[in-house]
Design goal:
The chain is built from 17 helices and two strands. By secondary structure, it is mostly helical. Strand 1 and strand 2 (399-407) form a beta hairpin. It is globular and about 85 Å long.
């Protein structure tokens, strides 16, 4: 999600600086902010968390400010004439097309995508009960942000004309500020609040994802596990940080600038849902399992619970309800199927084939499966060896698994001469 946030950061920053949003300008700013934010994560975890905490306060304060401003508009305390005009025919011109519904749900899910980052660093949460801490903080955060997001949307509808709302893209907040606070504060200053929010989000996502990459490397599932597992020289996962920057750059540069936000968002969501439908609830059941394979878990969660019961193990302290798993599985399946339905003419969210991200997402997953079959199954069979796991200790004290080849011994039917004489 770093690439989509980098694109939004670029658009709002260019708007605030009154620089034209051209493909080159947008891409250049997006690449720069990725290098800066992810680079901070690679240098200092402590300062990364401090920046996140500060920008979180700025973000929540900004949302609260927008909500209060929207209330003032609805009360007639601003120059906005007839703030209730858009509410009279609120759903006029809307669509019931399944593809449009799927696109809208993906965008809504993206608004809450950062809440699970705490699980990526659960091992670093301090206190006697980190699971309870994350459980309570997640509930408070989701409730607060849901209320603020809903009220901000009401404020948008009250301030921005309906036609502008439909054509605003990611710059809806800029139109909101401009209509209320004029061309100076509303265009040059307040949009920077959105930029700050994106800046903090990129850092937060990078902290979580680089730790996931490091843990995957520690299991021996990445090439050069020593490099990706090491925390030298700054006490941070510098190898995963470099990989994160490279992959984010690749996505930003590979997608046309005008379609970058929508395509990146859709592409990130589809393979995520494929994995999510099967694996996600296991994370809620066994809180130490990484979030890499997230769809088989929706089915595997009941198998794991049954096995834990047969083994006489107590129920997990952090366990999702069966009804929640079923509901979540149903929503994931819908979002897997609906994007394949053709959208209404002229209403696709990208300028090329509407289901490109579905095919690309499935191709990524398939390529991973092919890589695994060749590396773990085919090559060992042809080469007469097997892949085994060895544990190594790095200079910084970290221990990780390393997958190495172990060639099978060929049994010689002939007996040694000396043993036959005994």
């Amino acid at each position: 999600m770093s690439s989509s946030n980098a694109v939004v950061f670029a658009q709002y920053t260019l708007t605030a600086l009154e620089v034209p949003i051209t493909p080159f300008n947008q891409t250049a700013v997006a690449l720069f902010v990725v290098l800066m934010t992810v680079g901070i994560v690679g240098i200092s975890t402590k300062w990364s968390l401090r920046i996140i905490n500060f920008l979180t306060v700025v973000k929540v304060t900004s949302l609260a400010f927008m909500v209060v401003t929207g209330v003032a508009v609805l009360l007639g305390l601003t120059p906005i004439k007839d703030p209730y005009a858009n509410f009279h025919n609120l759903f006029e011109g809307t669509s019931t097309n399944p593809n449009a519904l799927a696109t809208a749900l993906v965008k809504v899910n993206h608004a809450f995508i950062g809440w699970h980052n705490a699980y990526n660093v659960l091992g670093e949460v301090k206190g006697p009960n980190p699971v309870g801490t994350v459980r309570k903080s997640s509930l408070i955060a989701l409730t607060l942000m849901t209320a603020l997001f809903m009220l901000v949307i009401v404020s948008y509808v009250a301030v921005v004309p309906l036609e502008d709302l439909r054509n605003s893209g990611q710059l809806i907040a800029a139109l909101f500020f401009q209509r209320l606070f004029g061309p100076v504060i509303g265009v040059k200053v307040l949009p920077l609040l959105v930029s700050c929010s994106c800046f903090g989000n990129i850092i937060a996502v990078a902290i979580g994802q680089t730790r996931v990459i490091r843990e995957v490397a520690r299991q021996g599932l990445l090439p050069f596990p020593s490099f990706f597992s090491s925390t030298r020289p700054f006490g941070t996962p510098l190898g995963p940080v470099i990989l994160k920057i490279g992959l984010t750059y690749l996505v930003i540069l590979a997608v046309p600038a005008k379609d970058a936000f929508n395509f990146v968002l859709d592409l990130a969501s589809y393979p995520h849902l494929v994995l999510l439908t099967l694996l996600k609830p296991v994370i809620l059941t066994l809180n130490n399992i990484p979030q890499v394979f997230q769809i088989a878990m929706c089915f595997g969660v009941w198998v794991l619970r049954k096995r834990r019961g047969l083994a006489g193990l107590r129920r997990s302290l952090f366990e999702s309800r069966n009804s929640t798993v079923v509901l979540y599985l149903f929503s994931c399946i819908l979002l897997l199927l609906l994007p394949w339905v053709p959208p209404e003419p002229g209403h696709a969210d990208v300028s090329f084939w509407y289901a490109t991200y579905c095919v690309a997402g499935l191709a990524i997953i398939a390529s991973c499966g092919v890589y695994y079959c060749i590396w773990i199954v085919l090559l060992p069979k042809l080469g007469g060896y097997e892949i085994v796991e060895e544990v190594e200790t790095l200079p910084d004290g970290a221990r990780n698994a390393k997958l190495v080849r172990r060639y099978k011994r060929v049994e010689d039917p002939r007996q040694p001469l000396l043993s036959s004489l005994n």
